[in-house]
Amino acid sequence: MKQKLKTLGYGGISIFLFFSLIRFPDQALEAAIRGLNMWWEVVFPSLLPFFITAELLLAFGVVKFLGILFEPIMRPLFNIPGAGSFGWIMGMASGYPTGAKIAARLREEKQVTQIEAERLVSFTNNSSPLFIFGAISAGFFYNIKLGLLLAVCHYGANTIVGVVMRFHGRKQEKQITKQKRQPFSLKKAFQEMHRNRLRNPRPFGEILGDAVLNSIQTLVMVGGFIILFSVLIKLLFLMDITSFISAFIEPIFPVFDLPKELGLPFISGLFEITVGSNLISQVTTDSLLQKAILISFILGFNGLSIQAQVASILAKTDIRFYPYFFARLLHGTFAVILTILLYKPLYLERIVFHSNEIPAGTIQETPIGIQIYYLLQAIGPSLTIISLGAAIFILINKVRKK
């Protein structure tokens, strides 16, 4: 019966999309182009270097090296091996879905168990600093100081989630023979890195080519989800389904001192962060705190678009999706609490301090994060086309050799 209901559900969604596209072809095309522009201008060129670097570091054993060095920190704090530090750092630097990609690769190489991989993926999928400071703070709110508040609350809440999720799967883990904890040893870390490199007999050119291909394949999948959800959000809005859902949310908002007008943008943000954040920034409210609370929650929740990308990456492994989804609810909740607690010291008092310190008329330099964001928008399409061309060239060569 359960499988039959799944069949009906999947079939119903497919039919809905089919008839919606027929009903609104122009609007769907416009939304698809908007999603495509977002992907090839910013997402692809900003994530590709991190993905390729991650593949190379895994292939050359550097992750093994980091694993032994960070074991004394990662095991007591998050109850995962030291190799998980690589996913945590890369996830914070480059944003989602890098954490899921690295967790899946570590699981494939058996550097983490299934339970450890589920713990790891629950707190390594963050928004990147580039997105928080460049897109949201500068691009949507035109308020650079807001970025510090959002970033501290986002990454702070994510660390708390990692500590809480360390207890995930402890009952199942008791049935598994635990590995002996490795003490800090620089010499042993280097030996492990050297052994790992020797176990990989491929020449450097082949390793680099495979790293490029694997990274681009993942990013093409990410692009497909971005375009799909861009179209889906537009169709739901045109068919008044988003408004219908927000009608159930809006009566609850006044209880938390939030204006009803934020209901529709909030629902949009649950589907796609960028769209929701932009809509929230356009609503007039009594206090910026009200907007910051909702932005913090949807950043922690990741949005269904990001969650679909993560689910697609995890589907190739035995890593289950539900711990990640539960962690997203925790992340959003903790981020909201931190936003309320830190709004005054990190935003209001900071504004007063700077306004008293900086003379009127002083021209402030544009932060480096925003400069990078605008640079990506300018050269991103060219980098994307060149990278896709290189991937096709590498793939043709591999086929010819076979």
TrEMBL record:
Q: Which UniProt keywords apply?
A: Membrane, Transmembrane, Transmembrane helix
Where is the Nucleoside transporter/FeoB GTPase Gate domain positioned along the sequence? Answer: 42-136, 220-315
Per the record, the domain of life is Bacteria
Transmembrane parts of this sequence? 7-24, 44-70, 120-142, 292-314, 321-343, 372-396
InterPro entries in the record? Gate_dom, Spore_IM_YlbJ
Identification of the protein by name: Sporulation integral membrane protein YlbJ
Q: Which source organism?
A: Oceanobacillus oncorhynchi
